[in-house]
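Protein modeling request. Please complete all fields; requests missing the sequence field cannot be processed.
Requester role: graduate student
Desired output: 3D structure, token encoding
Chains: 1
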Amino acid sequence: MRPPLSRHRTEAPRAPLAGPSGLRIKSPDVLVAESGADLAGHGLKRSMGLFQLVCFGIGAIVGTGIFVGLSDTVAEAGPAVIVSFVLAALTCVFTAFSFAELGGAIPVSGSSYSYAYATLGERTAFLVGWCLLLEYGVSVSAVAVGWGQYLNELLGSLIGWELPAALSSPPGDGGIVNIPAVVVLLLAALLLVRGVRESARATAAMAVLKIGILILFCVIALTAFRDGNLAPFAPEGVAGITSGASVAFFSYIGFDAITTAGEEVKNPRRNIPVAIMICIGVVTVLYCLVAVSAIGALSSDQVADRPAALSLIVNRVTESAFGGGVIAFGAVVAIASVVLAVMYGQTRILMSMSRDGLIPRVFERISPRTSTPVANTWIVAVVFAVPAAVVPLDVVMNLTTIGTLAIMAVVNVSVMVLRRTRPDLQRRFRVPLFPLSPVLGIGFCLYLIYGTGPATWLQFAGFLIVGALIYAGYGRRHSRLTAAAQPADAPTDEPVAARQA
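Delivered output (501 residues):
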């Protein structure tokens, strides 16, 4: 006879939580069973090992935020940019603990969307998925814009020619349309539809290369290090450090993309938590080294608001354009890998939402030939190529940051709720110092949200209102969880056969 625990895991998920449809949860057991996460996946192939998963995570994180966004962080915080990076890292570390526990307990493609569905209800899950369009989809557009900037820097150093501003910058930045941004999105989509194995190999190669390039930058920049460049350390005080941390946080966006590979990773319950913690540690050390090296080699006034600051620093230190060309090449590779990894994450989240009926079914279709969501991938590439072509980078950066911070706050809440509602759930990793860690994670998220400013708060509130209206108009009516519960909610005088049809 099976023990009570096994019976609970099999039978409890069959009925949704009673109450309004927006508050119904989807049991972790159902999420895992529907995805096949403990078996062979939802039509997907398990082809990513731990090393590839770590490279995938680094590929999703290290890119525009450090190669392009460093100058924006310096503009806010001055030499205290180091403190801003550490503050942003602390926010990620506490939240990474929660992602690691949930990623091991619920190893499915939906990431924070699925975690919210299993703990806080369908309406909250939909809004989290809506915010993920900012973190993944819109940030892909922003990252693609940064790719074009370094592509021009590379072309200039190699052949002395650059793309005209009209074709390499969006309106508002001196251009008409950003052609390179569109090209990198379409190339990433082409690689993704070929198969996850090919994408993982490409991401791993690019991750190793860009880490090597950043280490090379640190070595070169440190040869010109001057203590005087660090004074005054915090010209804008605590306000500048906080604002800089909110900007620096953009540099860490993407580590949660690791959890979107839950159905294509070997041994996901072990490898997902381990990969998350390795990625956060490596990236934090790397970012702090780059920030110290950059400010030590060149004053914060010279680095601030320079889109290709790392190339500029190397050119000044070496008194040659060749070194800057090497950095530009690394940036082109790094940013391309971010586009690839983040677009992958976006397609898997949309696949999970489509599986639940909250968005059209076209997003869940898997090609039997490539085992990838082909239509989903091309739709994402085409839709987000539009803002990449015509929207400046700084317009979407703050909105993306606040959306990501809100998601991370929800994940910290979710890990506490799941500990209370499902203490029996298998967990290969547990948040240390629980519940202090998730509470601190929520606190840091709220603190950085405060640093984004009132204008961004209002934009985000409007964005959430639009998402709530879409859920009310489409998601709630088409939800498969609501449909599954419909017989129990139907009038009692309706024929049984009609309710079961």
